Amino acid sequence: MQFLDGHRPAHDLTYDDVFLAPNRSAVESRFDVDLSTVDGAGTSIPLVVANMTAVAGRRMAETIARRGGLVVLPQDVDPAAVADITSWVKSRHPVWDTPLVLTAGDAVADALNLVGKRAHGAVAIVDADGKPVGIVDEQACSGVDRFARLGEILDENVLTYRMDTPPREVFEHVQEHGGRLALGVDDDGRLAGVLTQVSALRAGIYTPATDDVGQLRIAAAIGVNGDAGAKAEALLKAGVDVLVVDTAHGHQEKMISALKAVRSVLPADSTVPIVAGNVVTAQGTRDLIEAGADIVKVGVGPGAMCTTRMATGVGRPQFSAVRECAEAARALGKHVWADGGVRHPRDVALALAAGASSAMVGSWFAGTYESPGDLRYDEQGRPYKESFGMASKRAVSARTRTDNGYERARKSLFEEGISSSRMALDPTRPGVEDLIDSVTAGVRSACTYAGATSLEEFHERAVVGVQSAAGFAEGRPLPSGW
Ligand SMILES: NC(=O)C1=CN([C@@H]2O[C@H](COP(=O)(O)OP(=O)(O)OC[C@H]3O[C@@H](n4cnc5c(N)ncnc54)[C@H](OP(=O)(O)O)[C@@H]3O)[C@@H](O)[C@H]2O)C=CC1
Ligand SMILES: Nc1nc2c(ncn2[C@@H]2O[C@H](COP(=O)(O)O)[C@@H](O)[C@H]2O)c(=O)[nH]1
Ligand SMILES: [K+]
């Protein structure tokens, strides 16, 4: 990456401060761009979902891995639950989505409670053998008594396919029949998956992030307190593919010793990468790499739920932090993830231009069907999910629930995150895959503007300029006139 001629930043910069200048390009199509990463995390798109309780659970993990990204389960999830989630995610089909399932005897209220859990907007109805007999969508439930049985309103006209049917065939068939949804069945005709027309299309564009036996990949976080080595061993046993050692102040001795402990339990020939953070300086990056990190997580204070900069004055504008840390990591043959502050697809493109191998996204993805929280509606009837920071009173109180009252009270004094925020579901992009589509489309396009067909080439060729607040404002769309 280089700065545009004459653009020499006098101070540190964040994403809004910079822009990418277009280069002469020989790349003919945005589909010619390969978005796979080279950091060993096994992702085919440069997106990692942050280890936040309000964002990263099993549905998110399954959905993101199917599109080539990776979800990091929070350190607050106990090891038995991590093992359970990991084996569940690995049992998911890499192409077909997991259906929401009820029977004809269940009530409309059950379907309404379930339907917001996934983006496909319908519940499959099965018989006692698990064979599909119909589907019920939200529209079919409207104006119907909540205690009515689903057998009375189900649509029996379902399209079923063997799971090895090429997704394109499913896409075309669903289109011909004017339907939205296809159900996948196993050899005995039992329900095993669901594809919407758009997910059949996505299956032809994205490559799932899978392990060496073709199962979906997943990562999990470990804190720096307690026996980090033993926790890492438990996660490895559970089948976790990437370990993330995570704390607010990553450049501290406790992190260095936790990292060494985690490295020491990994077999010498292990391909499981160790990620550690967070830091924002070249020296912090080098120290974590020296202690055993393959990937360093960069970002102090940019997170949407984060109050660290206001509480402490500590942090660093994210674009400069990523650029400096990436340069230090690359000099040692290692990588960085740009963690926090991603609000638009452009921020991901800029993080990659600055040298990150992936961007980590938290709060933005909290406002989707796949995040763990319940779907709620505000006073105007608009859907949202609750989000909160991992250093907020709410998260700290959950993390310290087994401590004695005095310890809990002491720890509750250090609050560096928001306990309750509302992340609206974008009505045009309510599912996390809709957001992934917009991010990957933006990044593919940014690569062709730079004349790059891979993310490494993008970093090499990227030309970045520094802009004023007016320059940034000019780039915003003005949907309602001025
Ligand atoms: N990227 C960011 O900007 C930030 C991210 N977070 C996220 O919040 C979650 C919780 O992390 P964390 O608060 O580290 O909690 P942890 O439970 O991981 O504990 C952190 C440990 O480090 C010690 N410590 C020393 N200095 C600090 C410091 N300045 N801030 C925090 N702990 C310190 C703490 O001791 P003692 O409590 O005795 O001081 C404690 O033992 C993580 O997921 C983290 O990524 C949190 C803040 C900032
Ligand atoms: N200072 C705090 N940082 C937090 C907290 N919870 C999460 N985080 C960090 O934010 C990113 C995600 O950023 P986002 O802008 O996409 O939401 C996450 O990975 C953490 O590093 C917190 O309570 N305090
Ligand atoms: K912030």
Reconstruct the topology from this structure.
Blueprint: E1 2-3, E2 18-21, E3 47-49, H1 58-66, E4 70-73, H2 79-90, E5 101-103, H3 108-115, E6 122-126, E7 132-137, H4 138-141, E8 159-162, H5 167-176, E9 181-185, E10 191-196, H6 197-205, E11 219-222, H7 228-238, E12 242-246, H8 253-265, E13 274-279, H9 282-290, E14 295-298, H10 308-312, H11 318-331, E15 335-339, H12 345-353, E16 358-361, H13 363-366, E17 376-377, E18 383-387, H14 393-399, H15 405-411, E19 421-424, H16 432-450, H17 455-461, E20 463-466, H18 469-474
Helix pairs in contact: 1-2, 2-7, 5-6, 7-8, 9-11, 12-16
Ligand LQESDW3C binds at residues 50, 52, 278, 299, 303-306, 308, 339-342, 360-364, 389-392, 416-417.
Spatial arrangement of strands, main beta sheet: 3-4-11-12-13-14-15-16
Distance between the ends: 36 Å
For the secondary structure, the number of strands is 20
The helix count comes to 18
- List the bound ligands: NADPH dihydro-nicotinamide-adenine-dinucleotide phosphate, ligand LQESDW3C, potassium ion
Cα radius of gyration in angstroms: 23 Å
Overall morphology: globular
What is the makeup of the main sheet?
8 strands, parallel, barrel
Strand residues, percent: 15-25%
Given as residue ranges, the uncertain stretches (5+ residues, pLDDT < 50) are none
Helix content: 25-40%
| Multimerization state | single chain
Mean pLDDT: 96
Structural class: alpha/beta
EC number: 1.7.1.7
InterPro entries: Aldolase_TIM, CBS_dom, CBS_dom_sf, GMP_reductase, GUAB1, IMP_DH, IMP_DH_GMPRt
Keywords: CBS domain, NADP, Oxidoreductase, Purine salvage, Repeat
Protein name: GMP reductase
